[in-house]
Write a structure and sequence with these properties.
The complex is a heterodimer of chains A (186) and B (521). Chain A has 186 residues and is α/β, with parallel strands linked by helices. Chain A has one domain: 3-Layer(aba) Sandwich (Pyruvate-ferredoxin Oxidoreductase, domain 3), CATH 3.40.920. In chain A, strand 4, helix 2 and strand 5 form a beta-alpha-beta unit. Chain B is α/β, with parallel strands linked by helices and 521 residues long. Chain B has three domains: 213 residues, Rossmann fold; 100 residues, Rossmann fold, CATH 3.40.50; 165 residues, Rossmann fold. Helix content of chain B is 40%, strand content 17%. In chain B, the strands form four sheets. Chain B has a seven-stranded mixed β-sheet, sandwiched between helices. In chain B, strands 14-15-16-18-17 form a five-stranded parallel β-sheet, sandwiched between helices. The longest helix of chain B has 24 residues. Chain B is globular, with a radius of gyration of 25 Å. In chain B, 54% of the residues are buried. The chains are: A alpha/beta (186), B alpha/beta (521). Strand 2 of chain A pairs antiparallel with strand 8 of chain B, so a sheet runs across the interface.
Chain lengths: 186, 521
């Protein structure tokens, strides 16, 4: 069973990232469930999206201690989702810090705790470099690709399937930049 | 048949089921987690947003009477609004099939309560199906349409947040061309005066017994035998998925696809085979009560919570006594919570800024602006249900007349059209000097920008005459109707002070497009 948790703030594109991952696993012949959050909690609140793939998937939810991969679109939300990680889980985390209003604690980055299997990516800067700051999600997918067994062609066709034609090129560039940043991390 | 499996959200799969069942009329009111059913349906089936769920269901009843296969989808609290027509539609039965989807929200992800809609099925005496993944969403939707015409009854389809908003693999079938059943006048069946209703009540009981007989053997309920015979579980919907995940393959599962009426024989068979049975169901002890009524000994709510959603670790601990370690849990403890909040640039921020500055007591309502209750605005004193702000302000002021200079109702445009109009009529009729603020962003914001009668656009994008709030309020008898811009906080403050001081009913329409749409429309 493969368990992936995507943590971020409403509006950061976690659902799209989950849909891309879900379709990749489905194309590998696995049973897939993707859990999303809609409605009230999307209004700038914490959003946790989950992707599960395996021979047969029952619950759409990942349990704490079970995730093979954590993709953090925002560093504090990534920290909040760290308990989902399994002992040998990997993490790909954006340096993006979206302030919590009226927050008391400072920012929290997961790197010190999770050690060498945690990639910290300046996803916002790379998304801007690709041409659209909203591609942070795809930058992180690019970085996470080193932990996942999909070919470049599979990634590309999954991205093409889920993204409007006019945004495909920017997103493919974002993916490549993320991929490179991921490689350079270790 | 299209063999290629596709990932579909549960709501999308219900919409696909509508095409494959030949449904030709959909009327709904948006509400998380049900909204996407109608949005997806609109791509292939005639679909519309009604001003509220009661109107939606009544429109669907009309289409069914005319011979069409009709559908309405709503969230759990929407069924409260639509309950009135449905209780009696249970008596009349249908012509074309009539299916109502109701999406519960255990855990209150986006709702003001976590009521268990299964009680409605029992109270209305309507069959209720409950899918547990997207494929079942499609299959059960089609089954619901078949049952509806076969047994001459409206059928309820119960969803929950995790079923509606999870994606799983679906093999879609072929869409069929909708047809109309013959229409013939039949007052004994459709005009529910007392003499006819008494006769139809008997017909309803007879039909319910037939459906009950059917569900003893029907394929919607199944037993999945485990590898040993120690533990059995009776469950349905998303609880089935959580239980299977938590308890594994050694356990036998009685998976109920029809949660009303409930069968007896499959449960007795399970009870006779395994040593011990658990009923695993989120929220109320609906199935458990049924088991106990029929003398089937089960464990359940005495040890499992009636609150919120069940998790895999929670079920493992309760049923198997196995505790899940969470060694990294402490890491998340230092991250401050990030609850939902009004968006940057939201016009409601200006409105609540003024309300807070004036220190007003606020009867609130359902929508994005309910977030005005959160700190630092903390500008809300109550929020109960759609429209309650307006009606409750009236009652509040009858009890405390001297508070009319510092108490307001705050309601959005879509919510006002849903359930605020009659409350405003009551304010005028029964004379309270109430000040009602209608926050008009001309869209249904919280659920994702669905158009409403004030938008001037239908679900499918046709332009229509937009309802004019000022004219409507005046027509209801409100003489003082003013309009303000929430960006002009001084102007809004002045208008609000003047209306609070007035000794008669007034409406302040605070108008500004949703910040997420500004520049887009």
């Amino acid at each position: 069973m493969i368990n992936i948790v995507i943590a971020g703030v409403g509006g950061q594109g976690s659902i799209l990232a989950a849909k891309v991952l879900g379709s990749l696993y489905l194309s590998h012949g696995l049973d897939v469930k993707v859990n999303e959050v809609h409605g009230m909690s999307q209004r700038g609140g914490s959003v946790v999206t989950m992707v599960r793939a395996g021979e047969k998937v029952y619950s759409p939810l990942v349990s704490p201690g079970e995730a093979d991969l954590l993709i953090g679109l925002e560093c504090q939300e990534a920290m909040r989702a760290v308990p989902f990680l399994s002992p040998d889980g990997k993490a790909v985390i954006s340096l993006r810090n979206i302030p919590i209003r009226q927050q008391q604690a400072g920012s929290a980055s997961g790197s010190g705790v999770i050690g060498r299997d945690c990639l910290q990516i300046d996803a916002l800067a790379l998304a801007k470099e690709a041409g659209n700051p909203r591609c942070e999600n795809v930058v992180l997918l690019g970085a996470a690709s080193k932990f996942l067994n999909f070919t470049r062609d599979e990634w590309e066709s999954a991205i093409r399937e889920h993204i409007k034609p006019q945004h495909i090129e920017v997103n493919l560039k974002a993916f490549t930049l993320g991929e490179k940043a991921g490689e350079e991390c270790l | 048949m299209n063999d290629k499996k596709r990932l579909m959200m549960g709501n999308e799969a219900v919409a696909r089921g509508l095409c494959e069942a030949g449904c030709s009329f959909v009327s709904s009111y948006p509400g998380t987690p049900s909204t996407e059913i109608t949005e997806f349906a609109a791509k292939n089936v005639y679909a519309e947003w009604a001003p509220n769920e009661k109107v939606a269901v009544e429109a669907a009843i009309g289409a069914s009477l005319a011979g069409a296969r009709a559908f309405s989808g709503m969230k759990h609290v929407g069924l409260n609004v639509a309950a009135d027509p449905l209780f009696t539609a249970a008596y009349t039965g249908v012509n074309g099939a009539l299916v109502i989807a109701v999406a519960d929200d255990p855990g209150c992800h986006s709702s003001q309560n976590e009521q268990d809609s299964r009680h409605y099925a029992e109270a209305m005496k309507l069959p209720m199906l409950e899918p547990s993944d997207s494929q079942e969403c499609l299959d059960y939707t089609k089954a619901a349409f078949e049952l509806s015409e076969r047994f001459d009854t409206p059928v309820l389809l119960r969803l929950s947040t995790r079923v509606s908003h999870s994606r799983s693999a679906v093999s879609a079938g072929e869409a069929i061309r909708p047809t109309l059943r013959e229409y013939g006048k039949n007052p004994a069946k459709f005009v529910m005066v007392p003499a006819a209703a008494r006769v139809r009540h008997a017909a309803l009981e007879e039909r319910l017994a037939e459906i009950g007989f059917e569900c003893e053997t029907g394929e919607l309920n199944r037993v999945e035998w485990g590898t040993d015979r120690k533990l059995g579980v009776i469950t349905s919907g998303i609880s089935y998925q959580t239980a299977r995940e938590a308890l594994g393959d050694s356990v036998s599962y009685c998976k109920l696809g029809m949660v009303y009426p409930l069968p007896v024989e499959p449960l007795r068979e399970l009870a006779a085979t395994v040593d011990e049975i658990w009923v695993i169901e989120e929220l109320d002890d609906f199935i458990e009560t049924h088991c106990k009524k029929h003398g089937i000994k089960v464990r359940g709510k005495a040890e499992l919570s009636p609150l919120g959603e069940y998790t895999v670790p929670q079920l493992r601990e309760a049923v198997l006594g196995v505790k899940t370690e969470e060694p990294l849990a402490f890491l998340a403890n230092n991250v401050p919570p990030r609850p939902p909040a009004l968006c940057p640039g939201c016009p409601h921020l200006g409105t609540f800024g003024v309300i807070k500055k004036l220190g007003l007591t606020v009867m609130g309502d359902i929508g994005c602006y309910t977030l005005g209750a959160s700190p630092p605005l903390s500008a809300m004193d109550m929020c109960v249900c759609m429209g309650a702000s307006v009606s409750s302000l009236h009652g509040f002021l009858k009890a405390r007349p001297d508070w009319s200079d510092r108490t307001v109702a705050v309601i959005g445009d879509s919510t006002f059209m849903h359930s605020g109009l009659t409350g405003l009529m009551n304010i005028v009729y029964n004379q309270s000097p109430a000040t009602v603020m209608i926050l008009d962003n001309s869209i249904t914001g919280m659920t994702g920008h669905q158009p409403n009668p004030g938008t001037g656009v239908t679900l499918t994008g046709s332009e229509v005459a937009a309802l004019d709030l000022e004219t409507v309020c005046r027509a209801l008898g409100v003489k003082r109707v003013v309009t303000a811009d929430p960006r002009d906080t001084q102007g809004l403050e002045a208008a609000l002070k003047e209306e609070l001081a007035a000794a008669e009913p007034s409406v302040v329409i605070v108008r500004r497009a949703c910040a997420l749409l500004e520049g887009k429309v």
